[in-house]
Amino acid sequence: MTALTSPTPIDTSTPRPLKLARMLAPETYTSEAWFQAELREVHYPAWHFACLASTLPESGRFITRRLLNRHVIVIKGQDGVIRAFLNSCRHRGAPLTLAACGTLDKLTCPFHQWTYNTQGELERAPGLGGLLSRNDIPRQSLNLQQLPCEVSHGLVFIHLDPDHTGSLSDFLGNYTSNVARHYRTERMVTVQEKSYSLNTNWKLYVEVDMETLHTNFVHQHSIGSQPVTPVEHSANWFGVFHRHSASPGLLPEKRHLAFPAPEDLSGPACSGTHFCVLLPGFFIVTAPEVMWWIQKTPISATQTQVDVGYAFHEETLERDDFDRIAPLYFQRLDQVIEEDDRITEYQLLGLHNGVRGHYTPVEPVVAHFAELMQQRMGQWIGCYEP
Ligand code: FES
Ligand SMILES: [Fe+2]
């Protein structure tokens, strides 16, 4: 796998000239050949969100995730460290578990009972007999295949290349200092998750998340208008900021019922909500009192896996009114996400005709994303540019 180099920063904070920008070529949303190149150049070189650290509170607690064509297990070890492993036994490759989550003292493969501790070390290996204790046996190659795994402000990320040496902090740039730390994401707890697939290209969903032109139309019966401004960013993220006095986590008529924001928020978290994309497709929204994400992972050029999660600060879960108010958040989030699901599937139907579209001056972050894709895809973009 190639290393992901930081793109040339593009200023999205100043207004662009009043002209149309050309959309990415329509084939980049429908071609399987392009998609395979995109996997190599954009998806495999990136860090991927796995879960919140609070999801793995004690040793032995684990989750499994399917990311691209890898199946991964993320587990907290006896030493308190969260690690990620490829979910494949070192005997003959069977998965250790297909459970979505759980708690285990040991990871025992159901096929021939090879057994690993929570730090991925092989402890028992039927069939190997005394060989396991001999010094000339390469023990390292019998332990679970570990993947890079790092935690930043309570967000757990993994890298799918076992040999990747770049740091998460370099990948995220100023996302944690400019956004995550202000919203106290390290105290967030996941309260609801869902996964499904859509008949759309993952880039279309990134694009709809980064423009507000559609909200008056697609979301006219839910959230309506939601003005945003692009934010300063570096490395592998970009985003917009929505300044508000009432939480966008609820439908407009319910916003007076919002949970109070924690008192230790700082900076922009005191006056609004960040809608950000951590490349390639991790859309994360941090509002003062709630956080949600929509992770888009491509399955093919025209199919996308969608993993959605909603989280609140841990102290919010303790409130007497939590069970009464939280469903109002789920109602708003589910409705708006459903509206975006449908419109991105609908948009792809037209792109199959090969007609090239445009971005207007009020969609600068979408145009920025297209420029980033052109940078990343370098040699490949020429195949589709007239
Ligand atoms: S494949 Fe796992 S123990 Fe044989
Ligand atoms: Fe939307």
Q: How would you describe the overall organization of this protein?
A:
The protein contains eight helices and 20 strands. The protein has 386 residues and is α+β, with helices and mostly antiparallel strands. The protein folds into two domains: 21-45 and 182-381, Alpha-Beta Complex (Naphthalene 1,2-dioxygenase Alpha Subunit, Chain A, domain 1), CATH 3.90.380; 49-159, Rieske Iron-sulfur Protein (3-layer Sandwich), CATH 2.102.10.10. The chain has a seven-stranded antiparallel β-sheet with strand order 13-19-18-17-16-15-14, with helices on both faces. The chain has a five-stranded antiparallel β-sheet with strand order 6-3-4-5-10, with no helix packed on it. A three-stranded antiparallel β-sheet has the order 2-12-11. A hairpin with a 2-residue loop joins strand 11 and strand 12 (155-159). Helix 1 packs across helix 8 and helix 4 (202-209) crosses helix 7. It is globular and about 70 Å long. Mean pLDDT is 93; it is low at 1-13. The structure holds FE2/S2 (inorganic) cluster (FES) and fe (ii) ion. FE2/S2 (inorganic) cluster (FES) binds next to loops.
